Amino acid sequence: MNLRELDLSSNALTNTPYCLANLSRLRTLDLSENKISGDLSSFVPGLPSTLEYLSLFDNDFNGSFWFSSLANHTRLTVFKLSTKLGTIQTQAESSWLPPFQLKILKLKKFNLGSTIPTFLAHQHDLRSIHITYSQLKGAFPVWLVKNNTRLAAIRLTNNLLTELRLPSRLVHGLNFLDVSCNRIYGSLPEDIGIVFPHLRYMNFSSNHNHGTIPSSMGEMKSLEFLDMSDNRLYGQLPNTFVRGCYSLSVLKLSNNQLQGKVFPRHANLTSLVWLFLNGNRFGGSLEQGLLNSKSPRLLDISDNSFSGTLPYWIGKISGLSFLLMRGNKLKGQVPHQLQSLQLSVVDMSHNSFSGSIPRNFNVSSLRELRLHSNEFMGSVPSYLFKAKGLQVLDLRHNRISGMILNTIGKTSDLGVLLLGNNSFQTHIPEKICQLSNVGLLDLSHNKFKGAIPSCFGKMSFGYNAIINPYDYSVGFSSFQRWRYPSALYLVDTQLELGLQSTPATTVNFLSKSRYETYQGDILRYMYGLDLSSNQLSGEIPVEVWDLKNIISLNFSSNRLIGSIPDCISNLKSLESLDLSNNKLHGNIPPQLADLNNLGYFNVSYNDLSGEIPFKAHLVTFEATSYIGNDQLCGLPTNKSCKTSKEFEKQFKEEEEEEEGDGVIDMVWLYWTSGAVFISTSLVLFASLCIDSRWSREWFYRVDLFIHRLQSFKGRFVCK
Hints:
The protein is of the alpha/beta class. It is elongated and about 160 Å long. Helix 1 (40-43) links the parallel strand 3 (37-39) and strand 4 (53-62). The strands form 8 sheets. The chain has a 24-stranded parallel β-sheet that branches. Among the domains are: 1-135, Leucine-rich repeat, LRR (right-handed beta-alpha superhelix); 644-718. Helices cover 14% and strands 24% of the residues. It comes from Brassica campestris (Field mustard).
């Protein structure tokens, strides 16, 4: 057959077609991203020897691989190999001389025995080398750069390299250098900008580099992407750097110990689009040097020590979409010039901004607004609840008061509403239930009063919630492309360039008695309601127990009454339930054991009684979950229900015995009284029958009394 190029990538192949051995003119074979398994030592030699391009990347191979198995492929120029199952074992083959000259080598998840493959010492035409997750140790292989004058890209990420050495001469052709996620110690070489003046992409992130940023980096006029985040760099940004690197599009210096001022007026970062300075020690006021950049899209100065007011000139950065400045010392009111920006994400949390909540944001593009932990006062502007695209509104830890939700847009996409730790003193308005897409709602630590709205049971909390974590992606176009070996097949050296971005949407929410951080896809499936630490009263609406998808429910520290109903078993997804510090009474329903996902349960300090259901996963709850309920008994408390029942039984028996004794005493009283009366009468009668002075005196007085009574009666009748 005359087939020259065969692309079977990204299928579900578990084996290769039998006809491959008959394709005697095949030059290009791409089997990447399949499920092909088997032993590599026998698989590779069976492939056509005419291959120039061979990709076995991302399959299910196992066993060992010897590069000498490629000995028959004398024309090979591109070779790619990795496995999704464990690592591929290989051994040094110092005596083997390869019959080919590679242009591209891409290896992933190899156990290279701590050294780079020795056959590479005989390669002199490499353009791109990519070895990741392969346990490379020692120093950066500077000899690769010396031996391959056309080398354009080096990627040695996620290895165990400990030292960065540079060639002694200028390297013209290298455009791409990535040694991130290693263990490289020491300071950056002072002459790095002189040795690599034509780099367009440089990534040294997640190492142990320390010291200052070399001033020679100002000579890297072509540098478009620079990531030195997560190291131990300190000192100020060199003037030569902020003036000379005018091609920089992406600058990421996050999580170091850099200090001083930024954005001086003489800054010449005219091409800057993405700027990450978060997690450093930069301070002072914000200067106007950033205005020299043509189209900044993201500004992240979070977790630094910037102070003063927010300058008005930020409103002049027309292309700004992400404004992230949490964790600084900024104060004052938010300038009205921000209304001219079409911002997507605004994070001003953990500062000292004051005044009313800005009423001038352009909400047409706004996805997230975070004003957490400031000194804002007044009410929540109604326009925020009309915004079509707003998904996250975090106003916790301010001084906001007054009514909320006076006007709610029917099309609101709000998925996260966090109003905890403010000064609300009203009833919870039922209009809040019109926010049909809410998945996380925090109204805790306020002074809300009255009953819990029954309409909470009609809110989505998982049914229709549309929390879409907002990802910011930073792209970087490939720097060299050529067609190989014909116009039908395109091979490039892009090497997955770009910044691996972190989802911007991160939400902290109280669950299981601790604040958990939810982001990315996990946030899509987190649904919670927190009404704790208010002045709510009355019974918990029965509709609330129908929230089948809710995961966290917190009604603690209120004045709620009533009992926990059997229908609590409807909360099938519930993982955290806190009803502590209320006035609930009655038994704990045994149906609680039906909640298989329940990992936290607290009903302490209520008026509950009866035996605690102690079965299934409920046995994992400690006695602190039930403390403060004197009438509860059974495990895990120390109070035995048996002792309690015996006491009740004994009390009833004593009560019945006392009642019986009382009946007997009354009968005895009646009989005794009758006997005394009869005895007294008989004695008196006997005494009268005896003729004595006492009896004669008795009868005389009786006759006298009768005579007087008759005289009185006669006088009364005459009248």
